[in-house]
Amino acid sequence: MDEILTAQSLPRRPYLVTPLPGPRAQELVQRDRAVTSPSYTRGYPLVVARGEGCSIQDVDGNVFLDFTAGIAVTATGHAHPQVVQAIQAQAAQLLHMSGTDFYYEPMVELAEQLAKLAPFPAGAKVFFSNSGAESNEGALKLARYATGKSQIVAFLGAFHGRTFGAMSLTGSKVVQRQGFGPFLPGITHIPYGTHASLDYLEFQLFKTVLPPEELAAIVVEPIQGEGGYLVPEEGFLARIREICTRHHCLMVVDEVQSGMGRTGKLFAVEHWNVMPDIITLAKGIASGLPLGAILARPELMTWPPGSHATTFGGNPVACAAANATLQVLTQGAIANATQMGELLQEGLRKLAIPYPQLSQPRGKGLMVAVDLLDKSGGFDPSLRDRAIDEAFYHGLLLLGCGKSAIRFCPPLVVDAEQIQVALEILDACFAKLFATL
User: Which of 125, 149, 265, 283 is catalytic?
Assistant: First the structure.
């Protein structure tokens, strides 16, 4: 990893110089509240000015260790020099020309790379979007177009986005759907991750209310993201593949959060040696620039010109960033995700020994979570939120997911020293927090 990690001017561990939030941060939070949508879900008052690697500096000069990566987006770390150089060079040449109507090399190059890396026997056809929600919207359309069928199966706990089609697939939280119906028809949700759930699909739904002959696709996250970083039972994804093959429908794998090396493989579904029909990507694909992608087996992506398009998707600057990101990932960052993920989980297992309120860790690579539990062993979201807040005041940035989980999704260039610093901060936070219970 030495060739990937470069000298950084920001400290590589927390360095707090003011009480939190500092005066400049307080001012900007108040200005923000006056003019921005209340739908944003800010947890703690972090006002970011700058990032390098796994470090974030706020507007008052405080430095934090970032284990969020901007919600699993900055895969190569903040402002990775190779990615920044690619962005700057491309921005000086061409900012936009719309890949829907014209051609340019960064988009072709990226599509070639993704087609080569896709786990399909004959490569892939690629459609570029701006986000995960857009990728999932497009995949939904493509599945219905390619099969001529309308019914879709999705999963409770899933998060696929907040636009109407993607939101109709989402089954994560009531607040994401409340007040926005009616939703896209033809979507059935079942529990995630177990063979019992697939038994229910096959032996109950298929025989009563969901004719399998009308099923276009099953849309699944190989590891459920916002639902809690949940890893499915062994054989779950392979069985979905078998069901889809048997009923001539498509397996659509949402790799928006789990893809681009986060789990130690470029695509998380590769851990189970399962070949989907369509893969959706976003988040880590361009290290922070807005870009998403739909990868499909070539024989499926046959929709005609004008049937699906985008103005900004595949923007040349975003594609240049993605090409550089792929280089960094394949040159060592994906392997590093495996090694550092094992180190993180080992440390979290040790932390759970003195703190029975902490569950055993789960996940793959640097997609890891632990739950915070109450005295009876049940989920405790308020305790989880307090732990994340406490970590912020110690200089560690974390996010929640699921019912009461803390998620760990640092940049894939995180190193062993930074893992150890994060564990030490968590130890101090838990000691303070649990002493009051």
Answer: 283
Q: How far apart are alpha carbons 176 and 132 in whole angstroms?
A: 16
Q: Are 20 and 56 in contact (CB under 8 A)?
A: no
Measured CA distances, 141 to 56, 147, 166, 437 (Å) = 38, 10, 11, 50
What whole-number distance in Å separates Cα of residue 224 and Cα of residue 210? Answer: 24
Comparing C-alpha atoms, which of 407, 406, 416, 415 is closest to residue 383?
Answer: 406
Beta strands in 26-169 (DSSP E): 48-52, 55-58, 63-66, 125-129, 151-155
Beta carbons within 10 angstroms of residue 276's beta carbon: 28
The answer to whether the beta carbons of residues 263 and 72 sit under 8 Å apart is no
Please give the structure tokens belonging to residue 85: 């150089």
Q: Which of 254, 277, 380, 415 is catalytic?
A: 254
By three-state DSSP, how is residue 94 classified? coil
Tell me the three state secondary structure of residue 376.
coil
Provide the CA 382 distance to its chain's centre, in angstroms: 23
Q: Is the pTM of the predicted complex or chain greater than 0.90?
A: yes
Residue 64 backbone phi and psi in degrees, to 5: -120, 150
Dmax (CA) of the chain: 64
Whether 159 sits among the annotated catalytic residues: the reply is yes
Nearest to 139 by CA among 361, 365, 294, 330: 294
The string of DSSP letters for 262-299 reads TTSSSSGGGGGT---SEEEE-GGGGBTB--EEEEE-TT
The helix, strand and coil proportions of the chain, stated in percent and rounded to the nearest 5, come to: 40, 15, 45
> What would the pLDDT profile of 381-425 be if each residue is shown by its tens digit?
999 999 999 999 999 999 999 999 999 999 999 999 999 999 999
Q: What is the pLDDT of residues 60-105, one digit of tens each?
A: 999 999 999 999 999 999 999 999 999 999 999 999 999 999 999 9
What's the rounded Cα separation, in Å, for the pair 326 and 184?
35
Element (H, E) at 303: none
Whether residue 267 lies in the annotated active site: no
Based on its alpha-carbon atoms, the radius of gyration of the chain, rounded to whole angstroms, reads 22
375 is catalytic: no
Main-chain phi, psi angles of 368, to 5 degrees: -130, 145
Residue among 128, 159, 408, 430 flagged as catalytic: 159
